[in-house]
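Run log // design_07
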């Protein structure tokens, strides 16, 4: 019996094609010459977990991470709304990746939030383990071209050792407002994704159960809180500080799965 055709993770359509996790246009801004990339799961660098976490898993792939192209989206999505989000964000994300000062207005914040949410969603699709983002969020991003109110996104200036590459960290977790006996991947409802593209540092938070998440001392672009953002005044984020921030929720005792 022939294997049924795969379906697009975003619209459910067929005719799947390979699509970049990081938009292909980003390589025009800052080409990556990395010879390999690493993937690790179940590894925390700033603390020792006291609750169950995913089994440790590591993989080394050839070539730069920016070139990864999983086959989980269709031609219509890749060449349609995804392409529009990519094009809309390009004028804003280019100076951020290169570390060039610019002013980011409300419209640009919408465009920037859309591309960062899309990248975070595509990262979740290739991650091993639970998938907290429901299909309804994909539909919202696909039809509205911006994230829903369940997302929070902050940016800073990446001041780490490598300013010419693309990196990400991803953690899925289960957050509860009161004690519960139900734990496991199927109850996962929250995720954090750290994105580094050249000199752009972005922290993406998504949760269906934590609408009043207090956030961080970075510059919030989603939901927008400033009419204009002067990127020359963005706080600097070192590699170590970036790891500390990414693991904050898990380190403070929230249950990561």
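design_07 sequence
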């Amino acid at each position: 019996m022939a294997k049924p055709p795969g379906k697009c993770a975003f619209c459910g359509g067929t005719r799947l094609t390979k699509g970049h996790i990081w938009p292909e246009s980003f390589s025009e801004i800052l080409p990556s010459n990395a010879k390999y990339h690493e993937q690790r799961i179940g590894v925390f660098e700033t603390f020792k977990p006291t609750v169950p976490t995913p089994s440790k898993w590591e993989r080394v792939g050839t070539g730069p991470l920016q070139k990864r192209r999983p086959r989980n989206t269709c031609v219509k999505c890749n060449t349609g709304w995804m392409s529009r989000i990519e094009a809309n964000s390009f004028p804003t994300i280019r100076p951020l990746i290169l570390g060039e000062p610019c002013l980011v207005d409300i419209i640009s914040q919408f465009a920037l939030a859309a591309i960062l949410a899309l990248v975070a969603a595509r990262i979740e699709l290739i991650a091993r383990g639970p998938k907290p983002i429901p299909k309804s969020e994909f539909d919202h991003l696909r039809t509205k071209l911006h994230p829903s109110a369940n997302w929070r996104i902050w940016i800073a200036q990446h001041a780490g050792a490598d300013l010419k590459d693309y990196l990400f960290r991803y953690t899925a977790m289960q957050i509860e407002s009161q004690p519960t006996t139900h734990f496991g991947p199927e109850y996962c409802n929250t995720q954090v994704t750290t994105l580094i593209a050249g000199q752009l540092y972005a922290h993406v938070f998504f949760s269906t159960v934590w609408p009043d998440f207090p956030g961080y001392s970075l510059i919030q672009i989603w939901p927008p809180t400033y009419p204009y953002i002067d990127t020359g005044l963005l706080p600097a984020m070192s590699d170590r500080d970036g790891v500390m921030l990414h693991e904050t929720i898990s380190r403070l005792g929230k249950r990561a799965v």
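DSSP finds seven helices and twelve strands in the chain.
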